[in-house]
Amino acid sequence: LLLSAALTHNARGKLALAESECLKAAPLLSKVGAFHYATYSFHVNRHLQQVIGSSDAEVKFAREVLSLATSVGNPLHQCWGNYDIASGLSRAGKLGAAMSQIEIARDLLNQSGSVPITRSIFLTTEGYVRLQASDYEGATQSCEEAWRICRNSMAYMEYNVRSLPQLIEVISGPNWTTV
User: What is the CA radius of gyration of the chain?
Assistant: First the structure.
């Protein structure tokens, strides 16, 4: 119920309430052995931190995702944790470390089987990290593929639709002030 409330608050734009519910849900879900939902609670909170928190908070919750996913041997959720960490590191300007986490996440995504929504969110995050690193060609490839998956699967979520504005940003590249 707490996780459902968090998701509802998130969808309504009440991000502080969503954060509060995630913080209550994750330990309770872990305690009762509902590890998928506990990991998802940390993961949603990481996404919230990307908007309302610091890069340190984003990485903190990303590490919770990765820790729990690793403890139960879930490669899909380990993928989430690694691309979550990459996002926070990228925001903090730690671009080499962020790219390393993206590569780990890619390997885990390939091991776990392709879930279109996860693949599109991974690619959106990869595009963001590459954009921060001024890798415009790589960012373009990631964002184009993420947007293609969004359109083809009709899976438009706040986590993957960012690929479109990122793609627009990539088009201007380093010369954005002269475009």
Answer: 16
- pLDDT tens digits along 13-60: 888 898 899 889 989 998 999 998 999 899 888 888 888 889 999 999
- Rounded CA-CA distance 172/168 in Å is 7
Where b means 16+ CB within 10 Å and e means fewer, 73-106 reads ebbbbbbbbbbbbbbbbbbbebbebbbebbebbb
pLDDT digits (tens, 9 = 90+) for 78-122: 999 999 999 999 999 999 999 999 999 999 999 987 688 889 889
Q: Can you give the pTM of this predicted structure?
A: 0.85
- CA angle, residues 170, 172, 176, in degrees to nearest 5: 120
Task: Specify burial of residue 134 (Cβ count, 10 A radius: 0-12, 13-18, 19+).
Answer: exposed
For residues 22 and 36, what is the distance between their CA atoms, to the nearest angstrom?
13
Contact present, 134 and 174 (Cβ < 8 Å): yes
CA distances from 59 to 88, 91, 101, 162, 165 (A): 5, 10, 12, 19, 23
Query: Tokens 């790219």 — which residue?
Result: 99
Q: Which of 138, 139, 134 is nearest to 162 (CA)?
A: 139
Q: Which residues contact 150 (CB under 8 A, 6 or more apart)?
A: 120, 156, 160, 161, 163, 164
